[in-house]
Structures are given as structure tokens and as C-alpha cells.
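We were asked to recover a plausible sequence for a given structure. The inputs and outputs are reproduced exactly as logged, with field labels preserved.

PROBLEM: sequence recovery
POSITIONS: 371
GIVEN STRUCTURE:
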């Protein structure tokens, strides 16, 4: 396999002191990228979103082996196919999904409820599906982030991490389909599927939470409610179609209850808020990823007495090859304005500053454009 020199953002250490603009845990550097092996594809990255799942590795909430080239929410153009790659062609625009699905394990047979077992193992190990490592720096291996490693000019991924979309889907929109929309949209459209008489509340209005809000609006529910601690995010939720917005304490004081409540903040207090805002007979869907040692308190009696349900939904219970075309079509129809989730564009060289902005809760979705 021939190799090429690329430029990318490598995480050197976790748990660095804030601000990251000063401690600079991410280094933008040149790397060597091997060409695609069997079942693999070389993609030229067009756009990549900066997501909380990236920040969780930077701040140490999610421990990953290092050094690692970060970035998992992206879109690009296929430049080269390895052997044995079905259904894809050079030149196609593709969405990169951060959890490949082998299609053969017991978890894949749950129709999205469970994450692929080999895919999860590869993600935890920092390899591609199948165990390959295609990145190196000065002769030493650099690990892959969630099978994608999109904070770079190019990436080699397993074809099962890719879903082709039509050229009319812009790169930034296509990128967000691969994580924010799959996760937030799936919490609404896969995990529960609310009806036209249902209210939906979303707790945590970052990229995933706002995507859940847009999906609930597209699903035609009765009322969409946004809940967040930051006033600027509440204002933006109203602009994106929320019928009402509240600070968490306001929602509790006013007795707000919804048939479906989505927790998208990845914080134990947000989970408690979401459970408390769920109506009798209703469902709480949690898609946030708090640190492993964080704990929440709920009242089990309430779950029983009110016939409540709590669902954990990883990646929005998604099957990317099934769901991404659906979301792309909703975008095409004007029902899912994904571009409205982009709060700013940033340069790859400013990735540490972008992590500070995200950690401060000041972004919905920052997007890096490579063209």
C-alpha cells in the first residue's frame, strides 16, 4: 500500500488544564497515511464537526489509547478504494459514521438497539474495523478515533463506516448527519417515535439536543420544549422551532411534563431533570455520555407508580445505512434544516480553541472546512 503525507490534529495527552488554547493537548502536525487495504476506503475530508465526544477524550471523561488522531463527525469525497469494497465509487460524497456495523454479530441483529460488538471493540482499541492501523508519525503508530479520525485532510476508513449521499447535500450538512443528527434524531425517531398528540422535551441544547429538537419538529408532534441552563441556547431553540423553552429550575417549578423527554447533555443533573420532566406513562431517552464515575438519583417508586420507561440510546439506536438517507431526504424536503445547527466555522489550526468554546457551552456545532 502506498502512503501519503497528511495534516491532522493529534491528541497527545488527556486531562490537560484549561484553557486548552494554552495547554494545547492537540497538535496539528504532519502524519503518514497508508493507502486503503481490503474493505477500506481513502476519503478526502471536506468538513468535520467538533463534538462533545471529541471533548470527552480531551478532558479524560472517555479514556482512549494515545496518541490518537481525533474527529469522528465528517463528510468527504472518496479518492481510492481498496479491494473488496461493495457499493461505493471514487468521487462519491460520503458521510462518515463513527460506529461501523459488521452486519453479522448478534448486536447488529438488534436493528440498531445495540452497537456492533466488533465495531465497539475496534473503537475502544483505536483501530479500524478488522484491527488495522493506517496512521503513523515519525515511524510510530497513531491511533484512529472511532474508526474515522476526521480532523485531518484525508482518512482511511472501513467501508462499513461510510454511507454515500447525493451531491446536493453540502459537506457541512452531510458531516452532521453522521453524529449529531443520527444521535439526536434517532432518540426521537428510532427509540420512541412520538405521535401527533405528544409533547417532546429536550434537555441539553448542544448539537445533539438541537438535532433532537429539529427531528421532533419534523415528526409533527404537538409541542416541542427546550430545556437548558444557558439563555443563548434557549433563544436559539425558539428560533429553530421550539414552542417553549425553560431553564431547568423553571421547568420544574411550572410542572412541565412531556410524553417523551430526551436527555442530550451527558450530565447526571441533566438526566435527573429529564426523568423528572417525563409525564406518567411517558419515556425518558438518554443519549448523553457522562463520565463513568458520575451518578444520578431517581425515585424508583415514581417509575413504577407512573408506569414510566427509561431508554438508553447509543448513537440514536441508529443503523446509519438505513437512517442517513432518511435524514438527507428530510433535509431535502426542508423539514430538517441541519445547516441551522452550525454555530461557527473554525480552522483546523484552532482546534484547541474550539475545544474551549465547546467546554464553555458556547457552541451548538463548530465545523472545520477543509476546502
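RECOVERED SEQUENCE:
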Amino acid at each position: 500500500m502506498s502512503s501519503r503525507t497528511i495534516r491532522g490534529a493529534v491528541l497527545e495527552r488527556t486531562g490537560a488544564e484549561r484553557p486548552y488554547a494554552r495547554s494545547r493537548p492537540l497538535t496539528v502536525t504532519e502524519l503518514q497515511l497508508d493507502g486503503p487495504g481490503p474493505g477500506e476506503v481513502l476519503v478526502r475530508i471536506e468538513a468535520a464537526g467538533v463534538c462533545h465526544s471529541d471533548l470527552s477524550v480531551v478532558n479524560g471523561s472517555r479514556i482512549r489509547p494515545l496518541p490518537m488522531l481525533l474527529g469522528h463527525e465528517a463528510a468527504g469525497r472518496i479518492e481510492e478504494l481498496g479491494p473488496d469494497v461493495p457499493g461505493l465509487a471514487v468521487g462519491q460524497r460520503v458521510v462518515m459514521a463513527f460506529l461501523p456495523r459488521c452486519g453479522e454479530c448478534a448486536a447488529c441483529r438488534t436493528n440498531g438497539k445495540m452497537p456492533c460488538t466488533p465495531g465497539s471493540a475496534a473503537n475502544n482499541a483505536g483501530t479500524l474495523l478488522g484491527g488495522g492501523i493506517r496512521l503513523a508519525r515519525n515511524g510510530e503508530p497513531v491511533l484512529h478515533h472511532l474508526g474515522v479520525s476526521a480532523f485531518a485532510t484525508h482518512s482511511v476508513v472501513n467501508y462499513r463506516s461510510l454511507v454515500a449521499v447525493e451531491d446536493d447535500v453540502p459537506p457541512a450538512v452531510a458531516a452532521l448527519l453522521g453524529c449529531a443528527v443520527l444521535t439526536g434524531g434517532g432518540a426521537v425517531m428510532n427509540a420512541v417515535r412520538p405521535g401527533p398528540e405528544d409533547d417532546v422535551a429536550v434537555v441539553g441544547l448542544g448539537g445533539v439536543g438541537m438535532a433532537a429538537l429539529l427531528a421532533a419538529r419534523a415528526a409533527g408532534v404537538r409541542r416541542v420544549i427546550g430545556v437548558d441552563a444557558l439563555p443563548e441556547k434557549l433563544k436559539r431553540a425558539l428560533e429553530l422551532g421550539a414552542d417553549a423553552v425553560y431553564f431547568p429550575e423553571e421547568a420544574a417549578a411550572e410542572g412541565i411534563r412531556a410524553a417523551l423527554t430526551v436527555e442530550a447533555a451527558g450530565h447526571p443533573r441533566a438526566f435527573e431533570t429529564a426523568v423528572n420532566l417525563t409525564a406518567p406513562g411517558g419515556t425518558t431517552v438518554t443519549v448523553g455520555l457522562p463520565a463513568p464515575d458520575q451518578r444520578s438519583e431517581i425515585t424508583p417508586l415514581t417509575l413504577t407508580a407512573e408506569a414510566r420507561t427509561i431508554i438508553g440510546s447509543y448513537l440514536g439506536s441508529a443503523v446509519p445505512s438505513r437512517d442517513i438517507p432518511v435524514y438527507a431526504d428530510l433535509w431535502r424536503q426542508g423539514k430538517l434544516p441541519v445547516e441551522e445547527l452550525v454555530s461557527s466555522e473554525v480552522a483546523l489550526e484552532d482546534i484547541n480553541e474550539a475545544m474551549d468554546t465547546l467546554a464553555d457551552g458556547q457552541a451548538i456545532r463548530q465545523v472545520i472546512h477543509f476546502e
